[in-house]
Amino acid sequence: MQKILVANRGEIALRVMRTAREMGIKTVAVFSEADRNMPFVRFADEAVCIGPAPSSESYLRADKIIEVAKKTGADAIHPGYGFLSENASFSKAVVDAGLIFIGPSAHSIEMMGSKISAKQAAKKFNVPMVPGTEDPIESAEEAKSIAAGIGYPILIKASAGGGGKGMRTVNNEAELEEQMRMAKSEAMSAFGDDAVFIEKFVGSPRHIEIQLLGDQHGNYVYLFERECSIQRRHQKLVEEAPSSCLTEDIRKAMGESAVAVARSCKYHGAGTVEFLVDEKLNFYFLEMNTRLQVEHCVTEMITGKDLVREQINVARGEKLSFTQDDLQINGHSIELRVCAEDPKNNFLPDTGKLETYMPPKGPGVRVDDGYEQGQDIPIFYDPMIAKLVVHAATRDEAIERLCRAVDEYHVKGINTTLGFGKWAVRTEPFRSGNFDTKFIEKHFKPEYLEDFDDDVEQVAALLSSYIWESEQKQSVGKVASNGIVTNWKVRRR
Ligand code: MV4
Q1: Is 158 in the same domain as 304?
Q2: How far is 78 from 102, CA to CA, in rounded Å?
Q3: Model's pTM, two decimal places?
Q4: From the CB of 199, is ligand 1 less than 6 Å away?
Q5: Parent domain of 297
Q6: Would you name the residues annotated as active-site residues?
Q7: Measured from the CB, is residue 276 less than 6 Å from ligand 1?
């Protein structure tokens, strides 16, 4: 592999290119007209504009991207996350064009993309599942008899859904028919597939996922878990590894279940198996994400492995270079997503110019970002501008380190989730590890965030110039040893 085209933008494009460069592999960036001045475009060895700002006209243009790969002589494509990363036809088209797709086969993506076929495959490998169906529900009558068997409340989920899309809660039989009709019609318009299935509703679960790697020779390893329960509208905000609630035994059982899911679809590459975990630490398979995830960094910090390097190695046919026994958890890592959103105003996306942008530095701090000071945050893409990742020996030290790094992070011109993250990790539930997916709903109020914004700084500036001027007029101070007039004794009265 001599040259990789990165079919993505922002922080993840840069992240992938950095590892490629370390491996002596050339990189090609593809970019939209809105991204011409982005760091990832400058970092790449070559860069090609593929169209206007909207993703549908640029980052989702599979045909154009493959054409650029051929023209530039790239021999592989890395899709990053989002965009075309979980598109089975893209994976196939890349391979059909004689290129390497740095990710799983179209077969694996398709199988795990359908929640029904994913559950059917996982079931054969005895992976624990929430009570419910592994077959599509055809009629309201069938739904009623199944729901009666498992007991209310239940969830109706779209087979083509995922990440919370096409999901409906049903509290009793009277609601069932209507909710099922709604779920089906929602799924049809969102995914063009109205297949739905039923699961027992697990109240206040944790979301814990297992990172795994597989090669093309049937070898698998799991790289432990990530705790991702702190989410809002199915958007993760804080992630950590390891989880503060798992025991060694459960960690091993979940890891082995995750590997079984991967085996069930002949998976190769980096992948993640999501589980719901209830308060008794029972775990249930939810779905598999067939891509490198945003939060992969916390896994890299605790395992010392570079997941992009491993993706590249297995994509070019190499065997995994380590076994399960070679892996261990080292310390604790927390990631905070820095999004251009206003947590004081319902996390509304915020756009504008990064007037000031100074990321934190120092021991145990990693910032994966994609913008620079002075740049505009475009409205066309995801609001995540950076990931603040810390690593420390213990969970408590990681929390303190995250707070220190947030204080050192200076962003002006847009609102971000930085203050929210610092608040979240200092709460009692987070510190004690006693939290679940309802954390924000249960504990967060916008007024908890310090109101330290531009107004405060302007008032401070005005006040200090006022004091300075009045001191000049009064001239009652003494000249201190450094030559500066000081009247601190006068002002104390
Ligand atoms: C559930 C559930 C409770 N019971 N399934 C939401 C996203 C999708 N991946 C599955 N989701 C859920 N499935 C059963 N049987 C609760 C959720 C859920 C959730 C899961 C993980 C993280 C955050 C969540 C927020 C709301 C609901």
Answers
A1: no
A2: 5
A3: 0.92
A4: yes
A5: 206-448
A6: 291
A7: yes
